[in-house]
Task: inverse folding
């Protein structure tokens, strides 16, 4: 059995899709959901599905390596960042070489980097009159959104699309592809 930990800071709609996709899977299991936000909806989802959760704080995350012990205790093989907005510290990158992926709601290398998350991305795509947007799945390194790209999928951006419309179309791509690409990487 390969065990995934999902890191998420927010709603957790991607985390939910991943959990549902691997429910009853013969060889892949979501073993832990980690959040930096006590009130994040993703933690309610995890509890409702009896998945162990871990709340982390900034000091411990950046100034200790205690998280590695938690990940070992839960026998975590692979990490999926699904709307997790903190930069990953070097000790964690080193512990999961090519075993940690992030999903980004744009076609990297465009619209990446610090501050480029969620609605900020879609607003920038709208303002620049892009003809397409999409998703990027990439390995995680010490820089925001810079690890090597594993997969991208695109959707058209119509002139009539608002940033909210773009967000919806991109999220639909994320929900479809993220669990499937993970399954391919872990299979
Ligand atoms: C997703 O769209 C994800 O791509 C984005 O946060 C959203 C989380 O939604 N991540 C980033 O912007 C990272 N830079 P969710 O909580 O509903 O899964």
Result:
């Amino acid at each position: 059995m390969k065990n995934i930990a999902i890191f998420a800071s927010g709603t957790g709609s991607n985390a939910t899709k991943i959990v549902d996709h691997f429910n009853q899977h013969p060889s892949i299991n979501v073993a832990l959901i980690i959040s930096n936000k006590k009130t994040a909806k993703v933690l309610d989802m995890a509890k409702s599905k009896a998945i162990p959760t871990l709340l982390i704080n900034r000091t411990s995350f950046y100034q200790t390596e205690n998280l590695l012990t938690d990940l070992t205790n839960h026998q975590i093989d692979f990490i999926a960042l699904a709307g997790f907005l903190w930069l990953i510290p070097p000790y964690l990158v080193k512990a999961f070489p090519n075993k940690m992926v992030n999903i980004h709601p744009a076609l990297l290398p465009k619209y990446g980097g610090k501050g480029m998350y969620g609605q900020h991305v879609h607003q920038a795509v709208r303002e620049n009159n892009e003809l397409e947007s999409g998703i990027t799945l990439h390995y995680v390194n010490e820089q925001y959104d810079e690890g090597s790209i594993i997969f991208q999928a695109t959707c058209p951006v119509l002139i009539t699309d608002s940033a909210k419309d773009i967000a919806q179309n991109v999220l639909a791509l994320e929900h479809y592809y993220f669990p499937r690409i993970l399954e391919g990487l872990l299979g």
The mean pLDDT is 97. The CA atoms of residues 69 and 75 lie 10 Å apart.
